[in-house]
Amino acid sequence: MTSSVHAVWSSRNALRLLVRRDLAVKYQQSFLGYLWSLIEPLGMGAIYWFVFGLLYGTDTNRHLGDASSSYPLFLVTGIFAWMWTNSAIGEATNALTGQARLITTMRMPREVFPIGRVTGRFAEYLAGLPILFGLAIFFALTTDGVTFGFNLLALPLAVLIQAVLLVGLSLLLSSMNVLMRDVERFMRLVTRILFYATPIIYPLSLVKDSDMPSWVKVLYEINPLVGIFQLHHAAWYPDEFPDAFLLSTSIGGSLVVFLGGWWVFRRLEPAVLKEL
């Protein structure tokens, strides 16, 4: 695995070119271009704010406390991070099947192709950070609950753990999808479930204070994305910082997925190349 990681690092220039090509192809016939990477999450945030902030916002506002007045920031923070997750999983799953001719003719580590999809979607996430910081500054000046301080360090930590998790998933899913095409369809269902099974549009306390059985809550919390999204929210709301169990679960789970995904990719690579 060490030699494989070194080979990928040696091909970082090719990775950069692949990312630039994917972004250019994705938006080449679009009038608004890269703005779509901002419009979509902002539009989703507006819809969820109307539904859960205005129409059915009693429980949400009660659990957010002082942060309820800055609920749009809470939403956009989660949705921006989720768009990276959802797009990376969806596009990385067919990263090998969609580039079969390129993979079989170019001399480079095949891991570059799914990793390139994750990196490309991360670039779109970075494009939205100025808007995120602008909203945070606005709500910090006009409402209570938004705090700037050492809690901002939670954001790069969240990004790092999320990147490790997504790279592992991309390697695992892309290789399996070549041999079993049902993987792509199955993951569409899984990502829909994960969206509501992760504290993206609602605070974690809403789950902890619910009447669900304790074993359901434990299953909920061992999802690595729960701790990751708590870190994203903690960048503005220090009270949302995950406890030791959630943090260790997210870090440990992400590392397991990363190592397992890389191992599976290497083991399946001969069969994948034969299939392609």
TrEMBL record:
Pfam families: ABC2_membrane. Keywords: Cell inner membrane, Cell membrane, Membrane, Transmembrane, Transmembrane helix, Transport. It is a multi-pass membrane protein. The chain crosses the membrane at residues 31-51, 71-97, 118-141, 153-174, 186-205, 244-265. Residues 32-268 form the ABC transmembrane type-2 domain. The keyword Ribosomal protein does not apply. It is found in: Cell inner membrane; Cell membrane. Belongs to the ABC-2 integral membrane protein family. This is Transport permease protein. It comes from Polymorphospora lycopeni.
